[in-house]
Amino acid sequence: MAIYSEEMERKLQISKVEDFVKVNIRGFDAGHDWYHIERVRKLALALGKEEKVSNTLTVELAALLHDIGDSKFRKPGDCNAGELIADLLTSLQIEKEIIDEVIIVNNCISFSSKEKQVIKTQVFRIVQDADRLDAIGAIGIARAFNYGGFRNNPIYIPDEKSTGNSSSTIGHFYDKLLKLKEMMNTTAGRKIAEERHEILVRFLKEFYKEWDFQI
Ligand code: ADP
Ligand code: NI
Question: Which-ligand-closest: CA of 137?
Answer without folding.
Answer: 1
